[in-house]
Design goal:
The chain is an alpha/beta fold and about 220 residues long. It folds into two domains: about 120 residues, Rossmann fold, CATH 3.40.50.300; about 90 residues, Rossmann fold (3-Layer(aba) Sandwich). It has a five-stranded parallel sheet, sandwiched between helices. A hairpin with a 2-residue loop joins strand 3 and strand 4. The longest helix has 17 residues. Bound molecules: 2'-deoxycytidine-5'-monophosphate. The site of 2'-deoxycytidine-5'-monophosphate has 14 residues, from helix 2, helix 4 and helix 8.
Length: about 220
Amino acid sequence: MKAVSIAIDGPAGAGKSTIAKRVAKELGYIYIDTGAMYRALGYSLIKDGVNLDDEAKVVENCRGKELKIEYRDGLQHVIVNDEDVTGMIRTDEVGSAASKISAYKEVRALLVSIQQKMAEKESVVMDGRDIGSVVLPNATLKIYLTASVEERAKRRYAEYMEKGQECDLEQIKKDIEERDHRDMTRENSPLVCVPDAHIIDSSFLNIDQVCAEMFKLVETVKS
Ligand code: DC
């Protein structure tokens, strides 16, 4: 049977990974978190002390690394040169490093080719910034999941508070705006809403409501 692919794109903090994970589980597809791949390289570059503004050095360093994706108990693990970095990549510092290096064409080419190979073999739900536009332009279903900057900042703030981490709402908002700007205006594969994507604005929807919208759309491509 032909592999089915669901592409979910959108800005940071719109809820892509939560929704993608749930949808993948429900459909029995593999969830591929492409942001985690950029983060894994970002983390590894920071560890190696590479200047992230030096494109040539970043590309050279990334080319020398072996990046593997493995699944354990249904969860995606990212392995760089035999080190499982999955637990190290969820910080703002690594997120911002990922955003920086994702602007480099050759870094993107390395990761896009891994992502495309993964989706050839199996049915997937893949989330990121360029999935519907570049990685899987022929995806079975394309979703653009977004939410207002205010709402995304509030959600991130609540996450930090829950973990007992000090944070400032205005600073979080500023960081999100900066990341949106960089991801949307870069020259190589910027975040765009492709014309054939279905837009879901989650500003006033909870997770269950977004999933319900998603399943309605999945039904339309299944039938
Ligand atoms: O989704 P995330 O926050 O984990 O992604 C981290 C950064 O990686 C994001 O700011 C931009 C980049 N990214 C990308 O350019 N293309 C993707 N498909 C996924 C992430």
